[in-house]
Fold this sequence. Notes:
Order of helices and strands: EEEHEHEHEEHEE
Strand content: 25-35%
Structural class: alpha/beta
Distance between the termini: 22 Å
CATH topology: YbaK protein
Number of domains: 1
Number of strands: 9
Shape: globular
Strand order of the largest sheet: 4-1-2-5-8
Amino acid sequence: xxxxxxxxxxxxxxxxxxPAPDHVDFELLGGALGAKNVSLATxxxxxxxxxxxxxxxxxxxxxxxxxxxxxxxxxxxxxKIAFNACSHNELIEMSYEDFASLxxxxxxxxxxxxxxxxx
Length: 119
């Protein structure tokens, strides 16, 4: 199961797609992109773009929302990817290859496993 997190990278919103139990590693993401400022976007900042979605259930189709998409590399090694479909009660499951073909995400190491994350 993958989750979508909306971040701001040097002031521009983007989607980060990572395994559901993981956390975005802002240092890894910023370093990989050469960004000076990477932070979580607030719900007030991003929810107007996702008015058809429940909070926290945005599908990772950044191409539909004019947002860059960054995928944790571990997900790119799976045959399938599953994620929320604008609802916490509905999922989309598809081959990772089809997802990558549709979205053209940038794949990189950008998350910390929940079990090793520092609070």
